[in-house]
TrEMBL record:
<keyword id="KW-0269">Exonuclease</keyword>
<keyword id="KW-0808">Transferase</keyword>
<dbReference type="InterPro" id="IPR008918">
    <property type="entry name" value="HhH2"/>
</dbReference>
<dbReference type="Pfam" id="PF02739">
    <property type="entry name" value="5_3_exonuc_N"/>
</dbReference>
<keyword id="KW-0239">DNA-directed DNA polymerase</keyword>
<keyword id="KW-0234">DNA repair</keyword>
<dbReference type="InterPro" id="IPR036397">
    <property type="entry name" value="RNaseH_sf"/>
</dbReference>
<comment type="similarity">
    <text>Belongs to the DNA polymerase type-A family.</text>
</comment>
<feature type="domain" description="3'-5' exonuclease">
    <location>
        <begin position="332"/>
        <end position="527"/>
    </location>
</feature>
<keyword id="KW-0548">Nucleotidyltransferase</keyword>
<dbReference type="InterPro" id="IPR036279">
    <property type="entry name" value="5-3_exonuclease_C_sf"/>
</dbReference>
<comment type="function">
    <text>In addition to polymerase activity, this DNA polymerase exhibits 3'-5' and 5'-3' exonuclease activity.</text>
</comment>
<dbReference type="InterPro" id="IPR029060">
    <property type="entry name" value="PIN-like_dom_sf"/>
</dbReference>
<keyword id="KW-0235">DNA replication</keyword>
<dbReference type="InterPro" id="IPR002421">
    <property type="entry name" value="5-3_exonuclease"/>
</dbReference>
<keyword id="KW-0238">DNA-binding</keyword>
<dbReference type="InterPro" id="IPR020046">
    <property type="entry name" value="5-3_exonucl_a-hlix_arch_N"/>
</dbReference>
Amino acid sequence: MGFGKGDHLHLIDGSAYIFRAYHALPPLTRKSDGLPIGAVAGFCNMIARYVDGNGTSSDAPTHVAVIFDHSSKTFRNDLYPLYKANRPELPEDLRPQFPLTREASRAFNLATIEVEDFEADDIIATLAHQARDAGGRVTIISSDKDLMQLVGGGVEMLDPMKNRRIGPDEVAEKFGVAPDRVVDVQALSGDSVDNIPGAPGIGVKTAALLIQEYGDLDTLLARAGEIKQPKRRQVLLDHAAQILISRDLVRLREDAPLPMGLGDLEVRAPEPAVLLDFLTRMEFRTLSKRVAGKLGVEPPAIPEPPAAPATAGAPAPAAEPEAQVPFDHAAYACITDAATLADWVAEIADKGWVAIDTETTSLDEMRAELVGISLCVEPGRAAYIPVGHVTGGGDLFGATAPAEGQMPLAEVLAMLKPVLEDPAVLKIGQNMKYDAKIFARHGIRVAPVDDTMLMSYAMHAGLHGHGMDTLCEQYLGHIPIPIKTLLGSGKAQVTFDRVAVCDAVKYAAEDADVTLRLWRRFKPQLHRAHVTTVYETLERPLVPVLAAMEMAGILVDRDTLSRMSNAFAQKLAGLEDEIHTIAGEKFNVGSPKQLGEILFDRIGVPGGERGKTGAYATGADVLEDITTMEDSQPQAALLAARVLDWRQIAKLKSTYTDALQQAINPETGRVHTSYSIAGANTGRLASTDPNLQNIPIRTEEGRRIREAFVAPPGRVLLSLDYSQIELRILAHIAGIPALKQAFRDGLDIHAMTASEMFNVPLDQMTPDIRRQAKAINFGVIYGISGFGLARNLRIPRAEAQGFIDRYFERFPGIREYMDETIAFAKANGHVRTLFGRRIHTPEINAKGPGAGFARRAAINAPIQGTAADIIRRAMVRMPAALDGLPVSMLLQVHDELLFEVDAGAVDETIARARAVMEGAADPAVALDVSLVVEAGQGPNWSAAH
């Protein structure tokens, strides 16, 4: 055994093979137990093709090894902690496949090497160096550009997908320099994928030109002061240390401590028994037959197991098309006795999954009564358990009685509780948060869960809604039974407990059946859509967190709200009198038709536009435009301003101070909002019933409403709020040095922007100039137009457009970001956040009035979506971080989290919660700008904020 002149070493980049296999094939699972094996299957097929192709090749290797990364952390992380910090977390279904690919390589009788603290590339470099020194040849089977520095002197690369050899000429074509200078070019250009900083603003082409001119990196840096281009010169002078660190990161080590020598890598034929045993265990039927034929042995028999996977959370196996299993309402079962339910529970435990749905008397989970539970274990095999149906009560005072043929609720829950809480049984739902809260109120903690609504949201945000009826029709080609056919509508509408059990079985069991079919369809598609990580880290784990927040609720002082309502009523009356005086006549201030007639017909404001009903448009935008007409239409301008004031107070009274009193739960004394995880395309949560996210805080009246949200005796409300998170994300994504530096220095970002734009020193900044810069800062994030900014600032449109033009001149990276984002959206039909959330932009190529909105939405989505992802990550981590403290997380309002905490634990809670929030992007994304969280506390929400 040895290696020397005339020998030929093949080094297979095994880690690259794994990822290529994972992304090339749809998700597959081993049918016997649900183990993910899609990447293993692709890997084995590639290795089998390699073995077949090189067995008869005239240039066959004499030695071969498959090289793997040992882990994600190596010595490079000690050199530069942010190295590869922005790489997304491994998909849930890929992680368990890594050890299987090592086993696969050994099964094919190929030497398999991985070394702790070193990357696969370093091992390849070490072996290539040794083989070259020994007089042999080396072929690196990979297309990884980082390995191109090794080419030359008997070392070449082979791109296995294109069957293309890569020698010195091909390297020079890619990098513009010979292989021995590739490291210098990479040190300058950096690598965003691996988070190697390089020299800001210098790409591969510029780097190659510099190295060609100065010979090598050390000479370039030593003579950087001679470079004529001032920006390029300054970058090299300012970032020399960073560039040298980058060189250390990209340069491959040739001294990795190897567990075996070159002589141990001699080519060996596979041992049939070993290889076929592995392929049999993986249940690779087709590949087993092909390999057995090549080896001249009988293929093994691999039985077809009847059972579905029993591993909770594992993707479903490839199923027959759901259309082959028709929806048959007559086949659904009605469970009315313990023996039948026990059989279903046993089957659920055996399978390891169940689609589950609840029927209740209300959409308010905190007040709803449980009427029935539906279960489904296979397409078409579903059942309904009625527990709360009643008969009678035909009129207002009519008595009701339990419907016949129902099991006692307590007995049903006692039998279901073990499987609903069993960590080995996956509970599948559509909007699972609702059902989880219903069960939680009955003492059952449902976990683990999968949610088809959230799967659809992760894949299809921006394309359509994610309700069950929409998904069922879109993806299953079936229209489910409409709920209105059972409940009726209007005054005749009834609650579900009054639906006849025989009708409820068809409707409720169908819901569970649809849910299971959607799950079988969606679960494997998460990977293909590249959103597995989004679903597994941002969507699914948020369900129990939000459920706990919603059930906790927030204490509201009814007396405070009542006093505010009375005060608002008096203010409205005063405003009405003033409005009537200005108008010169009495009219219904709340009537847009009457207001329009006064403004446009009697006062004579020009430009009035009538709608289809013939009434003038008097929306807020129209009235705001009129308020700018102080010179030409002073009466109308004053009237419009007072009507806007009246509308604002009227909305505060009706939407908040009146409605919130009705929303107080009589049992808890608290308001329990409901968060929609799939409510906004960008990932923002939406608060409903009641909406606590839209309480105005820019006016004194709006801020006062928060005074009604209070802490109970001995506790305080604690608010933690991200400071200007979207501007920080913009600075990172668009790469704006001035903004980044301002945030690092802790400057007033709006004053800094004003100083940059208007050439006004910070010590001479006026509130008006700062206000204009603030409007532009936030407006740009939302793709504001000159017209929109003019309206916001109440200045001429030309002046507003001039502000925007000047802004882009001072910060050109923002315009580049916008153009690149729109181009990407047009080419791909979607944009992505930094964490991989996909937001579809179906209207991006539209023309006409909607085109501008679509472009603005595409520009804003990665920024707002990334901010939403960050606070989601913080919320998911928060329960563990605050464990043991007397604290409850109550509300999320975009960039703010509100807690209720014992007075003595405030400081510790702030410290822990702030650490979670400020570190929420780590380790998935390494932001150039630090996240800053501001904290406040007080007896009520207003004081805390």
